Amino acid sequence: MSTETQTLALSGSRRRWFKDRLAHIGVTTGGILVLVALLLIFFYLLYVVKPIFDDARVEPGQEFSLVESASSMGNTVLLGVEEQNELVYRFNDRGEVNFYSLPEKGKRIYSVQVEGDVTSVARNIGDKMVAYGFNDGRFMVLSPKFNVSYPDNVRTIKPEVVFPFGEQPLVLDEQQRSLSQLSIARNGDDLAAAALTADGTGVLTRFAGKENFITGEVELTPTQVTIPGLPEQVDQLLLTPNLRFLFVRSANEVYIYDVRNINKLRLRNVLTMNAVGGNISSLSLLSGGNSLLVANDNGKVSQWFEVTRDGKREFTFIREFEANGTIEQITSEVNRKGFITASSNGSLDIFHTTGGTRLFSEKLAGDQVSALAISPRNSMLLLLEGNTLSTFHVENEHPEVTWRAMWTKVWYEGYPEPQYVWQSTSGSSDFEAKLSLVPISFGTIKAAFYALLFAVPIAVAGAVYTAYFMSSGLRKVVKPTVEIMEALPTVILGFLAGLWLAPLIETHLPGMVILLVMLPLSILLMAFVWHHLPKRIRNAVPEGWQCILLLPLVVLVGWMSFAFSPLVETVFFGGNARSFLTNELGIGFDQRNSLVVGIAMGFAVIPTIFSIAEDAVFSVPRHLTNGSLALGATTWQTLTRVVMLTASPGIFSAVMMGLGRAVGETMIVLMATGNTPVMDFSIFNGMRTLAANIAVEMPEAEVNSSHYRVLFLAAFVLFVFTFLFNTVAEFVRQRLRDKYSSM
Question: Is the pLDDT of residue 247 over 90?
């Protein structure tokens, strides 16, 4: 070999070595970057999700003495702070209202004194109202108001006291008896007031508000009735904000009055609501006014609300909470289903009712807490001890999100029993988000199950036939055609499924069921007939082309199924199969249901399973099949005992790849299901999946809200689902490969 030839050979070897190294580095780098990207996605999801599981934190703020002395302060009726956490207001039982500036260390900046002989007082925390009852049967309603302005670009907050129902006292008792106890509630322009007079008579007055068309003022029309059946001892009166119920506490019994129609006021029932080993100390309402909180002197607080059972709505014990000591003060959060208690030992406890959890418990005060309040944004807590006011900064952004609320049954207000519920939004102002991940996780598994139920038999059987029986010429056409189906946008499949297939199935439900049953049976019958035909007829068809004969059969069976559908529906189902399912069998039917999803998503999954499974079967070494046939095994025995076993790792991987595709599918389930998060395995009902839920609700979710972060948690759960499926698939595939690789 000449020197020049050796030089060229050496140069070519170096180029190949360089290309090999470059390819090796590129592949390695790409693999590492993919893993890094997956890890970044994983940790970013955890970063967004983590805050919803943080514990509530309460940190001390300011502490100062109010201007009044403890002897002249009176008892606090309503304590609160405006939204900017700058001005504190305090109503006492002597008719005095004071405003204090937190930036100025509790300086009193405004004060109002109610004129008249105050004999009773009532508060409404939700509407920030206080009512003072007088000795002449009248009462007056006051409310704090804050006017915000920006002179010279500096925020200025000016407090004032307003009178929502006029500056003149309203007549509650026409007989002008002194009011010893009082309760008020407001619903729009309507006002209701219940009182106990000095002689022990219960009086309820409903003021119907109507706006004057000319002046624009709200005119009140009173209607007074006497409360029947009151007990001799009345400890507390409490009206609900919807003006529906009046609760009267007498020792450990609570009298529940229906006051919706004041002219037909009636006592519904009397319930004993005290906790075991305790006595009722006070009643209060949760935000929204649908739940009654019953505080006991042994530190336990129970929640009650109406539950419908056997056609009747009754107040029912729901759950119980235990504070760390005897409860002195209790207050509900303004717009959430939580409440806070202050105990006689100075312990402060924060609870959330829906989650059934105590979020915080710590000793932060002395043993003389006289008032407790939470800011409108739930970010500041006020404690009043004597004339000392203490503020605390609260971090409790996501109290409604707990593992229990997301993964177990929860008893929500208005529901007959504990349930798994996903309902993140509503038009109601007192709505409580219900963020259980169980229904949408179930929907994800359900959609994947029905998709694979439809796709796996078709895809695997087609792959085996194409790789093992079909002629090479026909295989070159069929395999690329099926693989091209994978490029079809899923939004097109979802569009067709939702707007064409779903109505078609609804109007021809018997025909679709007949088709799903008769098509495989007719194919088996055709195979049986073909097998018993004379050899000269069978030999007339080239080997591997027999499947073409099934095309007319498929078309014929499909046409006959739908052609006979109206007749079958008329004869067996009274002309309406859907009504028969619902009325006779008790099976619900949604137009966009699991059957539609299974067929549509099955078509999307079939190419994936088919392609991988076909490659696995086709890659089985020929010497194995030839050896099996040479030893006397039939073609079917060779297929089932040699080819399928050898190709089983690839076939299993194909199915798991299809499962992963089905679990993560978005557009088909988004357009072809009712998107209702229900838990029902019925093939005629719809579902909502994790992926579809994220696609639907993420654009509307407020950034960093509980809803927003739970949607990221749903994405994390979907990520974990896919990871687990792929891990199991790889583990089983390796086991199958180790078992059958020696064949």
Answer: yes
Residue 662 near residue 599 (C-beta atoms within 8 A): no
Least confident of 145-154, 371-380, 633-642: 633-642
Give the model confidence (pLDDT) of 534-564 as tens digits.
888 888 888 878 888 888 889 999 999 989 8
pLDDT bracket for residue 171 (50, 70, 90): very high
Cβ neighbours for 514, distance < 8 A, ≥ 6 positions apart: 561, 564, 565, 568
CB 137 within 8 A of CB 179: yes
Q: Are 337 and 321 in contact (CB under 8 A)?
A: no
Contact 569, 509 (CB under 8 A): yes
- Token representation of residue 420: 């798994």
- What type of residue is 290? N
The pair of structure tokens assigned to 432 is 């409580």
Among 333, 299, 369, 391, smallest CA distance to 58 is for 391
Who contacts 671 (Cβ-Cβ below 8 Å, separation ≥6)?
491, 494, 495, 497, 498
pLDDT higher than threshold 70 for residue 332:
yes
DSSP 331-399: EE-SSSSEEEEEETTSEEEEEETTTTEEEEEEE-S-S-EEEEEE-TTS-EEEEEETTEEEEEEEE-S-T
Tokens of 304: 């009650």
Among the listed residues 315, 312, 308, the one whose alpha carbon sits nearest the alpha carbon of residue 294: 315
Q: Which residues contact 49 (CB under 8 A, 6 or more apart)?
A: 709, 712, 713, 716
In sequence order, the 6+-apart residues with CB closer than 8 A to the CB of 477 are: none
Rg of the chain on CA atoms, in Å: 37
Number of Cβ within a 10 Å radius of residue 497: 27
SS3 category, 448? helix
Length of the chain: 743
Tokens of 403: 């593992």
Look at residue 6 in the predicted model and tell me its pLDDT.
65
Amino acid of residue 187: N
CB neighbourhood size of 242 (10 A): 14
589-646 pLDDT, tens digit each: 888 888 899 899 988 999 999 999 998 888 888 888 888 888 888 888 888 888 888 8
For residue 383, which of 358, 347, 335 has the smallest C-alpha distance?
347
Count CB-CB contacts under 10 A for residue 369. 22
What distance in Å separates the CA atoms of residue 304 and residue 293, rounded to the nearest whole number? 7
Query: What is the bridge-based pairing of β-strands 202-211 and 138-149?
Result: unpaired
Q: Alpha carbon of 729 to those of 516, 620, 649: distances in Å? A: 29, 20, 9
Q: What's the Cα-to-Cα distance from 26 to each of 18, 21, 30, 38, 39, rounded to whole Å?
A: 12, 8, 6, 18, 20
E-strand stretches of 524-667: none
Contacts of 436 (CB under 8 A, 6+ apart): 405, 406, 407, 410, 420, 421, 422
